[in-house]
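2024-03-11 09:14:02 INFO worker-7 job=invfold-0412 stage=load source=structure_tokens
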């Protein structure tokens, strides 16, 4: 079996494998041939990274050896570990391909200086969110490498997306992931940034794509009957701080017999504390 970046399968735990996967995104660069696509492709890669960290936080992968499921079998846990290991293999393969290019070719690298300021700010924000969730220092001691062909990027991003699909199916955490992705959309808050994310996340992170679309268009609450207490729509945590997207909501046929929060509320006293 391949040993990506010198990591031997079986010598690292789930948390370390997850951290190494998140680390890898930091080392990918893009060659000059990507041109203007560099901006959107880098954003798509960051969408993939934030999707992985969202799943990791939702199942508490860094602290819970059962990955959020007390009934998880050792085989299921091993499957997730193997899947994370395969993500490392994908990155390692792309790094090895990069090393095969000769000095006679154009191996110049694009940088943030080649990007529009909106893309720079957005990628920095997404990187910040991902690193915050990682909560651990880098464990990989490797150098950066570059993707020089679109086909290399396509293989990498599609492979990672497919593998994340697999671990989300084995250890799903839909409620927690929806809460987290809405926080992400709220953190982005800028309409232009949300439009860019909505486009870049297509085929990579459907949750983020839908959250961005929802944040841009607002919620629609039609024919809602509430008896007792209920909360739906936004909310976010009480320690939230930042700017909210000013999308309007549509309410039609809402009937409440009790107490209900429908849409928004970003900080302050929790709705259920009253």
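2024-03-11 09:14:09 INFO worker-7 stage=emit residues=274
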């Amino acid at each position: 079996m391949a040993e990506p970046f010198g990591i031997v399968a079986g010598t690292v735990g789930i948390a370390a494998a997850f951290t190494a996967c998140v680390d890898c995104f930091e080392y990918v660069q893009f060659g000059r041939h990507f041109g203007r696509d560099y901006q959107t492709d880098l954003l798509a890669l960051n969408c993939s990274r934030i999707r992985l960290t969202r799943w990791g936080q939702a199942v508490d992968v860094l602290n819970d050896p059962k990955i959020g499921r007390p009934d998880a079998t050792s085989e299921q846990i091993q499957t997730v570990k193997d899947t994370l290991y395969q993500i490392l293999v994908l990155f390692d393969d792309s790094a090895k391909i990069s090393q095969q290019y000769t000095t006679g070719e154009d191996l110049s690298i694009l940088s943030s200086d080649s990007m529009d300021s909106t893309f720079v700010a957005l990628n920095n924000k997404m990187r910040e969110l991902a690193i915050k969730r990682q909560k651990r220092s880098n464990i990989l001691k490797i150098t950066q490498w570059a993707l020089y062909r679109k086909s290399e990027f396509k293989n990498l991003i599609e492979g990672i997306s497919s593998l994340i699909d697999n671990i989300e199916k084995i250890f799903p955490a839909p409620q927690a992931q929806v809460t987290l992705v809405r926080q992400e959309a709220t953190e982005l808050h800028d309409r232009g940034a949300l439009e860019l994310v909505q486009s870049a996340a297509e085929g990579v992170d459907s949750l983020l794509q839908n959250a961005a679309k929802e944040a841009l268009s607002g919620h629609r609450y039609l024919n809602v009957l509430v008896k007792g207490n209920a909360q739906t729509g936004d909310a976010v945590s009480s320690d939230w701080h930042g700017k909210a997207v000013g999308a309007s909501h549509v309410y039609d046929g809402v009937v409440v017999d009790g107490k209900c929060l429908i849409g928004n509320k970003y900080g302050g006293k929790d709705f259920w504390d009253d």
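2024-03-11 09:14:09 INFO worker-7 stage=report msg="The longest strand covers residues 225-232."
2024-03-11 09:14:10 INFO worker-7 job finished
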